[in-house]
Specification:
alpha/beta, 7 helices, globular, binds adenosine-5'-triphosphate, ABC_transporter-like_ATP-bd, ABC transporter ATP-binding protein
């Protein structure tokens, strides 16, 4: 295994396209004595065509960092650029539009609507983007088929296993072809084998020159999927591991 540690910001060494550039990012919650500093001047580069992991102990700021990167939370200070667009300078409406078009989300909870079939659930981002229902569901069925769920497109969530529901959630995250896929503990609710399958699937989605995947996880059984692993502690990125992508997940 080839593992190199480096600083979080490494302009030249990798030579890839920077998908997400985080600079001086700080974020706190509460005020006075109750104040918690969740992010403390974080710098990080995430490369396109790579799977990046954000890891670290509970409460170190992983979800906060992912949420600011994805434009769900506003930062107090610092900048985040996603494929060259500085989302920390966007207004709320522009950020919402950017998120809807360019970012896909996968969470620990699948958040599927129980009355909708797998294909209908996976079609939701397209419907929100203005597609008519028929073509949207047909496109979602194609994406589901491409990730081995072809036989389940008409199933309701209650008829699916946890791993299958997470695949529907992944199809939903990919259906509008986002450039950035952000995943918060995607394997936490799954058994080990299913978790590995889900990570493999996410990797397949990541390995495109024009797309990046960022996964927050504290599941060290899936760390080997990361091409770049950002270790956080106490609101800071304290170590970066870069691995040869051809060796990841081996
Ligand atoms: N909405 C909030 N209000 C107040 N404090 C918060 C809020 N969200 C997060 N925090 C605090 O910020 C810090 C970082 O939280 P965060 O959820 O980012 O950590 P994490 O590394 O993702 O943790 P875990 O692995 O347990 O999910 C923690 O101390 C947490 O209690």
């Amino acid at each position: 295994m080839s593992v190199a540690t480096s600083t979080a910001v490494d302009e030249t060494a990798r030579g890839g396209t920077i998908a997400v550039r985080v600079r001086g990012l700080s974020k706190g919650f509460g005020s006075g004595e109750q104040r918690v500093v969740a992010l403390d001047k974080v710098d990080l580069d995430v490369y396109a065509g790579r799977m990046s992991l954000i890891v670290g102990p509970s409460g170190c700021g992983k979800t906060t960092l992912l949420s600011v990167i994805a434009g769900i939370l506003n930062a107090d200070e610092g900048e985040v650029a996603v494929f060259g667009e500085t989302i920390t300078r966007m207004g709320d409406r522009a950020k919402t539009r950017f998120r809807a078009r360019r970012i896909g989300f996968v969470f620990q909870q699948y958040n599927l609507l129980p009355a909708l079939t797998a294909a209908e659930n996976a079609s939701i981002p397209l419907v929100i983007a203005g597609w008519r229902k028929g073509p949207a569901v047909a496109r979602a069925a194609e994406v589901l088929t491409s990730i081995g769920m072809g036989k389940k497109v008409d199933s309701l969530p209650s008829q699916l296993s946890g791993g299958q529901m997470q695949r529907v959630a992944i199809a939903r995250a990919l259906v509008h072809d986002p450039q950035l896929l952000v995943c918060d503990e995607p394997t936490a609710a799954l058994d080990h084998e299913t978790g590995l399958t889900v990570m493999e699937l996410l990797r397949e989605a990541a390995v495109r020159p024009d797309r990046a995947v960022v996964v927050v996880t504290h599941d060290n059984r899936v760390f080997h999927f990361g091409d770049r692993i950002a270790h956080m502690d106490d609101g800071r990125v304290v170590k970066i591991e870069d691995r040869d992508p051809s060796l990841s997940a081996a």
